Structure formats: C-alpha cells, structure tokens
Amino acid sequence: MKHMFCAISLFFAVNLIAAADTPYSANTGKQVWKFKTGGPVSTGVCIADGKLFVTGGDNKTYAVDLKTGKEIWNFQSEMGASTSPTYWDGKIYFGSPHGFLYCLDAKTGAKLWTLGVGVSVHSNPVIKDGKVYIGSKDTQLHCVDGKTGKEAWAYKAYAMVYTSPCFWNDRVIFGCHDYHIYSVDAKTGKLGWKFETPSYVTASPCAFEGRVYCGNADNNLYCLDAANGAKLWIFKTGGPIYSSPAGFNGKVYVSSSDGKLYCLDAKTGKKLWAYQANEDVWFSIADERLYVGTYSQSLVVLDAKTGKKLWGHKNTGAPVGAAPVISGGMVYFGSMDGYVYCLDTGKAGLNADVYPSDSGM
User: Fold this and answer.
1) Tens digits of per-residue pLDDT, 333-357?
2) Would you give the end-to-end CA distance of the chain in angstroms?
3) Model confidence pLDDT, tens digit, residues 114-144
4) Cα separations (Å) of 322 from 94, 187, 298?
5) How far lies 29's CA from each of 52, 129, 291, 292, 349, in Å?
C-alpha cells in the first residue's frame, strides 16, 4: 500500500515512520517552491503518488508535481470545493458547498462520479476499508462506497454535521451541532453511544489509545472512554475550541480560540505547557515538533516536549488556514494568499507522525 499524507484525518496519520537519527541541516525553513492557485486556499493539502492535491477558492481542484511545484491538471467544479481533498486507491474525494461528494481520477483529474449528500458539506471526507465517511449540513453522517459512489448508509442526527469523523476499532466517531458526540458502527451505522455536551460540538474529534478527545464551543476539551462514551476528564480553556486535538506520545495537543496551543497529559488532562499564539492555529506533528499554521501569515515550528519556538516562516501574504503536511523532508501548506508553499524541514525523509482530523478555516 502506498502512503498518502493528508491534513484531514487521524486515520491516515498514525503509524507513519519519521526519519530517525538524521540531523537537521542549514536548509531548515528554506522555501523550495510555491504554486499559485486562482483563489484563497483555506483547506488542507493531500499528498500521494508524487503529487500534491489541493482545492482552491477559484472552484478548482489542482494536482501539482511534488518535486517541482508545477501544475499537472486542474478540475473545475460548478461551485468549487468546501473541504480538503482525500486520496484513496488512485482517486481524489472532496465535498462541495452545494451538497455533493466528488470523486476524481487522481492521474488525470477526470470526474468519475458525484453523489448528492444533502446540502452544504464542510466535513472533510475520511476513508476506511474502501468506504468514504462525510458529514453534511443535512444533519447526517453519510457512508459511501469509494469505488461506486453508492451510499451504504446514513446516520441521522438532529443538527448539521460540520466535523470530520475519526475511527476507533469498528466505530466511527463524530461531533454534531445538536450538542452531541456520536459513536456508530462503521459497517452498519447503528448507534453505539452518544455523549451530550452543553454546547455545539464545533471541533472534529480524535481517538487515541482508547480515548476520544473533542473540543467544544463551551471552551472545554472533553476526554471520553472510546468504548462507552463515559466522561473521563474535562480541561477548560479560555475560549471555544474549533480545531481538532491530536494525541501523540502520551500527550494530547489542542488549540483554543483563547489564542493558546495546549499540551496536556493524555490520561489525566493535566496541563504540561501552553504556547501563547494569540490566535487560532492548525498543526501537525513530526519528530517531536509541532508544525503550526497561523492566521498571522506564518508557519511556526515548536518543540513538542516544551512548547519552545524553534523556527518560523513569515513570507506568506495571508493567513495559513489549515494544518501543514510533512512528507519526504518537506512541509507543505496552503495560504489565503492563493499559494501553496513547499519548505525544507531540514531533515531528509521526515514524514508526519500525526495530523489532526480537521484542517481548514
């Protein structure tokens, strides 16, 4: 199986191997190339088969050569894309603001099929065992066959599903604007458990070592037992949580709209450190480093153990609205200035260990 790297799903991110014992070079943070789209890029990029895939604000989806940054193809959809792209089995998937799930041929950009999934889609598609899982404003989580585009099942909640799902064993877990976090059977859509919160579930959940972590509009990060939904602990931040948490090496990381990026003990919820970003941020983890996209037109790299800033890149002309992708020693991210950037991490062969399950504004 070929590795694919997408800033959209914890399912794709675990168990990727980072380069070991390779020293960081003087090229750290050096820009290798940038690619101009026709509009703001507020979603994450996806990497597979030597290509970078990105959905732009100009209603186009692009495939770009990973080494050169040159365009290979573009696909224009009627109303564009409202999610990050996802790769599986030679295909690219994304959701649209007019309620469709698209499937394209990753080599040519040709449209293979579309499926109506209600109204506006803001949940990034996530794939497991050949099935595409995507939430919709129609209050449902849809499960779709990745090859045929035929819907297998849809679980109906009581409000819009903006969050992207994650997986634990045979369960698919997602949050909803009806104040609940749901766990349903990935094959049948049958409800396993649901947990009620005091407010909108605005952040995508992540599953890590038998626990589910999910941010909420009530300013809290919730830690639940993945098996039964029982509450294990709550950590209160100073503002609503809109970005997905990520678990790694016994810790859970989460950004809050109070302007801080927190590192917590994954078992107890005890705060280990907090980085004062003064804004919402989106991040990925590689080699004990956090690669952080910010609204202040920059990429910042932090030590995952201490929260100390190691280096930064501030040559973008607008906010970075999605988690960066780290692959082959490079870090890739889009910006609201319409460009996709490729920077050298300074460590040859470096790949990400974890991507949170959401990654866009």
Assistant:
1) 999 999 999 999 999 999 988 876 5
2) 31
3) 999 988 999 999 999 999 999 999 999 999 9
4) 15, 30, 12
5) 19, 36, 11, 13, 15
Residue 20 has pLDDT above 60, yes or no: no
Residue 179 included in any domain = yes
What span, in angstroms and rounded, lies between the C-alpha atoms of 222 and 297? 30
Q: What is the pLDDT of residues 216-233, one digit of tens each?
A: 999 999 999 999 999 999
Which residue, chain included where needed, has tokens 């990429």?
299
For the residues of 286-326, what is the DSSP string, one character each? ETTEEEEEETTS-EEEEETTT--EEEEE---SS---S--EE
Domain span holding position 331: 5-344
Look-up: residue for tokens 């749901």? 182
For 85, residues 6+ apart whose C-beta sits below 8 A from its C-beta are 6, 8, 43, 45, 46, 53, 54, 55, 61, 92, 93, 94
Domain containing residue 165: CATH number:
2.130.10.10
Q: How many angstroms separate the Cα of 285 from the Cα of each of 7, 238, 278, 280? A: 11, 24, 20, 17
What is the tally of structural domains in the chain?
1
Q: What torsion, rounded to 10 degrees, do the Cα atoms 162, 141, 211, 181 define?
A: 60
Between the CA of residue 246 and those of 87, 264, 359, what are the distances in Å? 21, 10, 12
Taking the complete model, does pTM exceed 0.85, yes or no? yes
Question: Residue 24: its pLDDT value, please?
Answer: 80
Q: What single-letter DSSP state applies at residue 82?
A: S
- The reply to whether 147 falls in a domain is yes
Which tokens is 221 given? 């990060």
- The lowest-confidence range among 22-31, 53-62, 255-264 is 22-31
- Is residue 101 one of the residues assigned to a domain? yes
Length of the chain, please?
361
| Helix (H) or strand (E) run with residue 10 in it | helix 10-13
Average pLDDT over residues 35-39: 95
The dihedral through the CA atoms of 96, 101, 102, 106 has a sign that is positive
Q: What is the largest CA-CA distance in the chain?
A: 53
Whether residue 357 lies inside any domain: the answer is: no
**Both tokens assigned to 328:** 């082959």
Question: CB of 124 within 8 A of CB of 86?
Answer: yes
Q: Decide if 338 contacts 39 (C-beta within 8 A).
A: yes
- Contact (CB, 8 A) for 334 and 321: yes
